[in-house]
Amino acid sequence: MSQKKQVAREKKAKRSKYDSAWKEIIEKLFEDFLEFFFPVMHQVIDFTKKFEFLDKEMRPITAFSNLGDRVSDVVVKVHLKDGTYRYICIFIHIEIQGQPRANFMEQMYIYNYRTFDKRIEGGVPVISVAILTDDDENYRPDEYCVSFCGFELRMRIPIVKIIDYKLKKELREKLETSTNPMAMVVKAQLKSFEVKKADEDTKFDVTKELIRQCYKHGYSRDEINTLAKFIEWIIRLSKASEKRLKEEIKRIEEEFKMPYLASWERSAKREGKREGVSEEKIRIARELFKMGIDIDKIAAATELDRDRIEKLASNSN
Fold first, then answer.
1. Neighbouring residues of 121: CB distance < 8 A, sequence distance ≥ 6
2. Domain spans of the chain?
3. 77-134 tens-digit pLDDT
4. Contact between residue 46 and residue 80 where contact means Cβ atoms under 8 Å apart
5. Exposure pattern of 238-275 as b/e (b: 16+ CB <10 Å)?
6. Which of 17, 155, 218, 242 is most open to solvent, judged by the fewest CB atoms within 10 Å of its CB?
């Protein structure tokens, strides 16, 4: 492979990771996500019942999107406390550093009815919401409307503007006082705008402080790992800075007495450099594989890397 193609491939891979950062946050911290950004919706959902992410349904819905490729979309099936409906689907759209788009709400309408058409099952409603991460404070689309000769169609959706957590006093206060993990996500997103053109040392200091705050808030290990991964994707440190950060993380670990699994450690684990994987996790992985569970789901449940699970599966045959 030529050097030019290799560079292009690496850039594409980095971009893909960056664009999927919000999606992973939503999937791993879904309840926290709704509680922080859409509290009214959070209150009516029954989280004692399993919610389900409908990844397969998303492919045909957004395959021909003209909103651009810097987006992340999630459809999740949830149950309501009052049992009004058998279930509802929430279509969550994240516009990642997008520029203002004149047809944004029209496209959201198309997404909504396509999702409804895919999931139509006794009138199951599809609720659309959006997160906008652009820095244009005047860009606030929230309604799609067509009215002509007695025909009227109107759709309004709840929209969150990340920049508002910098511009509005009440939201700034919420950001500083909230212990919800999504507060750290917002802080990281805002900081990524500030340091986009900054030197490497500044990016390093910002990343280190954001991760330190995760420990300070007392989040669980899984929450810290998820947030740290998001921060790493958003700030985009160089390889050299990642090595420096590893040493800083060790100091933070000593300060807060909590283990941390950073990206470089995950890579080392994939390469077989980490030891001490519990026999219990290996046993569970084998059992899940025998049950026909997808390898990615086994990896998420056991925290074993995919390569190791594939080897376990191969040895089981």
1. 86
2. 3-161, 166-270, 279-316
3. 999 988 888 888 999 988 876 667 788 899 899 888 888 887 666 678 899 999 998 8
4. yes
5. eeebbebbeebbeebeeeeeeebbbbebeeebeeeeee
6. 218
